[in-house]
């Protein structure tokens, strides 16, 4: 497994894939039966990378996925978590439909080309906005970290500057006393 981990290019796994690619991979049948979460999308990305490098052993891919997920930073995971939330909100656009033969509820996905055109356009706008939020969230977190670091540096610099100001005042005071 260690050789597989060495061959995996993390740049192909982070950042996560685009929402369109995820929607195309997790077909409507899959969306109907199970929840899709951040880890499953991550597993898809690792599997795609393993396929690219020629690894097909499912057990090794699963172990590599677990290892990479556990050792990923919160910032790396947040992209997948946000993507999972967007995907789940897309799933919520489904409507419940009872089939005449059974009492079991089945779900039909309202794809963008089905239904009322005004609702479709609103859903597209919502998805675009959620994608923009997903793209901007890591930037905001990055800027918050940079701002915190700058504040810390500023505090560290103000103490020596204040000491220098005090020293200058004392020198001026001592010099003025010598002159008089």
Automatic annotation (TrEMBL):
The organism's place on the tree of life at top rank: Eukaryota
This protein's name: HMG box domain-containing protein
